[in-house]
Write a structure and sequence with these properties.
mainly alpha
């Protein structure tokens, strides 16, 4: 069984936070919510659904 790692705090990982902000702005445009709680939920959803590659392909 594959274990997934969930993120629960972005304060210590500003690079990941910036990637998530860029990803959300690209995907959701004017509807993007870039508060940490929502960014964490987005990361965990991407991780759970094997879509983290999408996050790291965003410039």
């Amino acid at each position: 069984m594959k274990k997934t790692i969930e993120i629960n705090d972005l304060k210590k990982n500003q690079k990941l936070r910036k990637k998530l902000v860029n990803y959300c702005l690209l995907m959701y445009e004017q509807n993007a919510i870039i508060q940490d709680d929502y960014l964490i939920m987005e990361y965990n959803w991407l991780s759970k659904n094997n879509k983290l590659e999408d996050l790291f392909n965003v410039k």
